[in-house]
Amino acid sequence: MSQLYSMQDVLQNNGLNGSFKLVSEMGTSQPNWDYVESLCCLSVKNVSYTVSEHVGPWWDLPSFRKKWTRQILNRVSFHVDSGQIMGILGNSGSGKTTLLDAVAGRIGNSGKLLGEVFVNGRKLKAEQFQDCFSYVLQSDNLLSYLTVEETLTYTAQLALRKHSSEAIRKKVTAVMAELSLGHVAHSVIGGRIFPGISGGERRRVSIASQLLQDPKVILLDEPTTGLDSMTTNQIVVLLAELARRDRIVIVTIHHTFLAYIIHILPFSIISVFIFTSFLYWTVGMNPDPVRFVCFSAVVMVPHIVGELLTLVLLGVVQDPNMVNSGVALLNIAGIMVGSGFLRSFKQMPVVFQWLSYLTFQKYGCELLIVTEFYGLNFTCTPLAGLPGSCLMDSGNMIIDQGYPGALSRYTQDFLLLYAFLPALVILGIISFKIRDHLVRR
Ligand SMILES: Nc1ncnc2c1ncn2[C@@H]1O[C@H](COP(=O)(O)OP(=O)(O)O)[C@@H](O)[C@H]1O
Ligand SMILES: [Mg+2]
């Protein structure tokens, strides 16, 4: 994919002001289909959608008078150029379908929609949406008794009424070739009761029926949901290919918790290694490659824990800003309670001593101190040194003073530190499952 945004990226994308200024200066002259023929770009600016409903039924007047409002989209902006495919990632209920509906002008009038959609830098009016976008819905609405060719021909007859039957036949053949459906042209679609073409082929027929009108912008709502990974891959390659032929393709992708992790993890690992390589050697830590690897392995955990914790909380709390500051505060609390840097464990109230065992900072800090000081011997020059400098003549003494017993707990600390990762993954899966369940209901 040439562009892949997560829902948060899209929501927080504010870097488009320059191009939008230009857009508004160009005025709002009417785009029509001919002008859209040479599509350059699609911009969406500050789309917000809020719904409000009465709290109670109409016969319960006091609660009927009260309304709750819910903001589903909050100032979403993005820009896509022709030839690009954009993925909108999010879990259930994150507002993917609502965003596509808003962009395509399909949103009902049950809520308040704000924002603008620009095609080639010109603002679209409500009646022009239908012409500009093709929308492939999440579920395939196909008639099971028709063959693939019949399905496409009937759709084309309805959609391209002004065209001759010869032109329609050619169009159907071309679209079937483009989507590699030629070999199943005469197979029935099929349904639950009798077998037909495969799920991936059915999805391709849905896409094909939208391609008949030669749309320049194709919106697809979760085209890969419910397909196996092979078919998903085929569909994504196909969509990227469609985009490459001077179209804009926007897809929403249902992201599970595990998919998030697979998406983030390689980048986390690489970025931590870049970070520690720079930090370790410039700050002047113990110049031993093995200790450097241990140091990186320890620093890796807080980083990934931070990401996982953010995801876990995102499953429960909708607001990403709240989640970000919550994670930062939890980290600071963990350092205060767990690290032993500010107060030694013995000096803390018993409750906090117990709580410290629940913080990854406790294990991380012990490991960092041991990694740095283990086995060091200091040469003592009492006259040149500071007062008290000769009290400690070995690294092990420093460790024992601050973290008694930490030397013998090295492996155990590593295990406990890394145990936070699977624990958070499990917590995340549970939190996402609960959320999916609630949203479905
Ligand atoms: N018209 C509406 N009235 C009330 N709630 C709505 C309306 N449209 C969408 N929602 C809510 O907004 C949230 C996002 O919905 P949707 O866009 O369908 O999410 P997604 O496609 O990412 O699963 C859901 O919780 C849904 O219930
Ligand atoms: Mg949806």
Task: Write up this protein.
This protein folds into 2 domains: 3-254, Rossmann fold (3-Layer(aba) Sandwich), CATH 3.40.50.300; 257-440, no CATH class. The chain is built from 17 helices and 9 strands. It has helices at 7-11, 17-25, 33-36, 61-65, 96-104, 129-132, 148-159, 165-178, 199-211, 229-244, 257-283, 289-316, 320-338, 350-356, 360-373, 395-402, 410-440; strands at residues 3-6, 41-54, 67-81, 85-90, 111-119, 122-123, 133-136, 217-220, 248-254. The strands form 2 sheets. A 5-stranded parallel beta sheet has the order 1-4-9-8-7, with helices on both faces. A 4-stranded antiparallel beta sheet has the order 3-2-5-6, with helices on both faces. It is elongated. The relative contact order is 0.09. Bound molecules: adenosine-5'-diphosphate and magnesium ion (MG). Residues 96-97, 138, 221 line the site of magnesium ion. It is a multi-pass membrane protein.
Describe how the helices and strands are arranged.
Blueprint: E1 3-6, H1 7-11, H2 17-25, H3 33-36, E2 41-54, H4 61-65, E3 67-81, E4 85-90, H5 96-104, E5 111-119, E6 122-123, H6 129-132, E7 133-136, H7 148-159, H8 165-178, H9 199-211, E8 217-220, H10 229-244, E9 248-254, H11 257-283, H12 289-316, H13 320-338, H14 350-356, H15 360-373, H16 395-402, H17 410-440
Parallel strand pairs: 1-4, 4-9, 7-8, 8-9
Antiparallel strand pairs: 2-3, 2-5, 5-6
Helix pairs in contact: 7-8, 9-10, 11-12, 12-13, 12-15, 12-17, 13-15, 15-16, 15-17
Residues 51, 72, 90, 92-98, 110-111, 439 line the site of adenosine-5'-diphosphate (ADP).
